[in-house]
Amino acid sequence: MSSDPQGAVFAALASEARRRILDIVKDRPGCNVNHVASHFETSRISVMKHLRVLEDAGLITSEKRGRERELYFNAVPIQMIYDRWTTEFSGLWAAQLTRVKYRVESKQERER
């Protein structure tokens, strides 16, 4: 993983092709590079470059089995990003939205 793990995750997720690769690996844990490459019109080498970026960001893990690599989706980096912003701000925004809801409802009641 890079010195800025969350930056690496955002950079990896910025590519539509890499997001698609994550979907493929998530839907079929343990699949190999050939399986992933079969979903793309680009070369296997191009897919392997995308996989390297995803591995560097910690979003994909791989295990070598003989001559093939089995690929697995790792949701931990995404969960860490989610936790970073939602734990602190989710309560604040939930409270703000609740106040807005009550104001709108009370205004509707007065208008009736």
List key phrases describing it.
single chain, 112 residues, mainly alpha, Arc Repressor Mutant, subunit A
Query: Rough shape?
Result: elongated
Question: Biggest sheet, in brief?
Answer: 2 strands, antiparallel
Quaternary structure type: single chain
- Average pLDDT, to the nearest integer? 90
Domain module count: 2
CATH class of the largest domain: Mainly Alpha
Describe this structure in words.
The chain has 112 residues and is mainly α. The chain has two domains: 5-74, Orthogonal Bundle (Arc Repressor Mutant, subunit A), CATH 1.10.10.10; 78-112. It has five helices and two strands. It has a two-stranded antiparallel sheet. Strand 1 (60-65) and strand 2 form a beta hairpin. Helix 1 packs antiparallel against helix 4 and helix 2 crosses helix 4. The N and C termini lie far apart (59 Å). The relative contact order is 0.14. The mean pLDDT is 90.
SSE blueprint:
Elements: H1 5-13, H2 16-27, H3 33-37, H4 44-56, E1 60-65, E2 68-73, H5 76-111
Antiparallel strand pairs: 1-2
Helix pairs in contact: 1-4, 2-4
